[in-house]
Amino acid sequence: MTPLADPALGSAPGWPLVLYFHHVNPLVRHYTSLDPDDFRRGLENVLQHMGPALEPADVGPDFRPPDEPRVLFTFDDGYRDTLTLAAPVLAEFDVRVLLFCTTERLDRASVTTPQERAALPPRESYLDWAEAGRLAADGHVLSAHTRTHPRLTELDPASAEHEVEGSLQDVAERTGHPARSFAYPYGLVPEVNPVPSTVLGFGTVKSLPASWTARPLEIRRTYLPVGETDRWPAMAAEWREQWYGSRC
């Protein structure tokens, strides 16, 4: 693992720590997917050192850095277990998340029968728009993650722009509010960036830890390593120290 990709490297000093997840589900094996008990333990550790959680509704191009450590929780893709398994744990801690939706997959879920959806494995089971609306009603914020989840770096500029702008438009039409943020599939940022300056762009551990004003379209996110719960308290404490940086 390169130093940049190490999840122990957090955000730029003075800027919120941003964590990303895909699933909260005991059946999924993925480096950003936790079972509910570990997710609960992770929230406890991170909020103890970096809390309170940042409200996702406050996140946009006009965001100003906080006066003390904060953490923003984000989920990618729009999987159904965000509602069924993650949301109850988040409610225990009074935490809202920024949910980056792959919009055509939510479209497809919205026209799939309940019987067909029940038979899908977790990694193919997405929220429908009504379910996403339930999350939004609870204060979680829906935003964009392309329409079909391609590697944007493998598309020509026009096709990449179509994926990005289309998902931003889909979210705006479904929620009645303009999308103010975007997450790159696989954390891959094209050389010709298709994300408009009217939103914030979120990457992964592939992005540098830089202030949001310096690199507003390549904001670093990190994660809690699966199977390393004993390491999490020290990581959270280190993220807090990194927040202070030269302020210490």
Summarize the SSE layout with pairings.
Blueprint: E1 17-21, E2 23-24, E3 33-34, H1 36-50, E4 71-77, H2 81-92, E5 98-101, H3 103-110, H4 114-118, H5 129-137, E6 141-144, H6 157-175, E7 181-183, E8 200-202, H7 232-244
Helix pairs in contact: 1-2, 1-7
Q: What are the segments in which pLDDT stays under 50 over at least 5 consecutive residues?
A: none
Percent strand equals 5-15%
Helix % is 25-40%
Task: Provide a count of the helices.
Answer: 7
At the first level of CATH, what is the class?
Alpha Beta
Roughly what is the average pLDDT, rounded to an integer? 96
Strand order of the largest sheet: 1-4-5-6
Give the tally of structural domains. Answer: 1
How are helices and strands ordered from N to C?
EEEHEHEHHHEHEEH
CATH H-level superfamily = Glycoside hydrolase/deacetylase
Which descriptor suits the 3D outline? globular
Distance between the termini: 28 Å
User: What's the number of extended β-strand segments?
Assistant: 8
Sheet with the most strands, sense and barrel status: 4 strands, parallel
Secondary structure class reads: alpha/beta
What can you see in these coordinates?
The protein has one domain (17-247): TIM Barrel, CATH 3.20.20.370. It is 33% helix and 12% strand. The protein contains seven helices and eight strands. The chain has helices spanning 36-50, 81-92, 103-110, 114-118, 129-137, 157-175, 232-244; strands spanning 17-21, 23-24, 33-34, 71-77, 98-101, 141-144, 181-183, 200-202. The strands form three sheets. It has a four-stranded parallel β-sheet. A two-stranded parallel ribbon has the order 2-3. Strand 4 (71-77), helix 2 (81-92) and strand 5 (98-101) form a beta-alpha-beta unit. The mean pLDDT is 96.
